[in-house]
């Protein structure tokens, strides 16, 4: 019995040696070693998140551009009607009315109607200008939201992104690598800034035209209204909107002087006079409005075409 037990123990001991050596050859799991994450890394998810963000922001830019063009067109229509009503009323006393000249009170009645027409056109012009300011505000906002930053998600396994940096070391530009095929985030930002600058310059110029056209009614009575002066708001909250668009001087708290691109600006306060503008001057105002002198529509089409080609999508 003892001999049997010895054999079993010997065999058992002999068998333990290779088994233990086999275990030694196998890598022991180390609890402290990193395990592969079942979730994609933030760097892998940044690109699709950045692509979605850029598509959204450029779609907003296109929508705001179209809204601007619509508001500018309506504003031109209101401005033309305002000028026509003003000139008709101004020259009413000397106008040949033909068979109507002997009708009692015909000139006074016509003048009152034209005055009402002026007021309607005045409100319409101001509303169109407010829409143009709003459109530029949306353009500026979209152009400033092109970057995509990693959002702190310690309580979640989802990788999230936001429009502002939560980590000062995160530039949000993906290291300057292409987001789609060739263009990086800074490239998209540069194109957007070129686009926005056109509309900001044109908005400032059109503001000068609006100020001059709105002041006609006051000048007709020989007065001067602060509500239609360059240094005063044209509607409540206008200066807040312009400040958001970086179009308000922090020193003077007045809108930046209007100018043509690549040309110096002047002081619009010195341009204003108490006398009524002539017919020729009013025609120049309307022509300037129509010309959109700061907007290169062909370049705008090129920019959006370039972006759509890069994204392989129709905005």
- Overall pLDDT, averaged? 81
What percent of residues adopt helix (DSSP H or I)? 55-70%
> How large a portion of the residues is in β-strands, by DSSP E?
under 5%
Lateral arrangement of strands in the main beta sheet:
1-2
Largest sheet: 2 strands, antiparallel
Which spans of ≥5 residues are poorly predicted at pLDDT below 50? 1-25, 35-39
> What is the succession of H and E elements?
HHHEEHHHHH
Q: Distance N terminus to C terminus?
A: 92 Å
- Structural class, from secondary structure content? mainly alpha
Shape verdict: elongated
Number-wise, the strands total 2
Query: How many H/I helices?
Result: 8
Number of domains: 1
Radius of gyration: 35 Å
How is this fold's topology laid out?
Blueprint: H1 2-25, H2 42-90, H3 106-143, E1 149-151, E2 160-162, H4 185-214, H5 216-220, H6 238-244, H7 279-291, H8 297-311
Antiparallel strand pairs: 1-2
Biased composition (Pro residues): 28-41
Region (Disordered): 17-44
Question: What are the salient characteristics of this protein?
Answer:
315 residues
Task: Provide structural commentary.
Residues 28-41 have a biased composition (Pro residues). Residues 17-44 are annotated as: Disordered. Helix 2 (42-90) runs parallel beside helix 4 and helix 3 runs parallel beside helix 6. The chain has helices at residues 2-25, 42-90, 106-143, 185-214, 216-220, 238-244, 279-291, 297-311; strands at 149-151, 160-162. The protein is mainly alpha-helical and 315 residues long. Helix content is 57%, strand content 2%. The protein has one domain. The chain starts with a helix and ends with a helix. The protein is built from eight helices and two strands; from the N terminus they run αααββααααα.
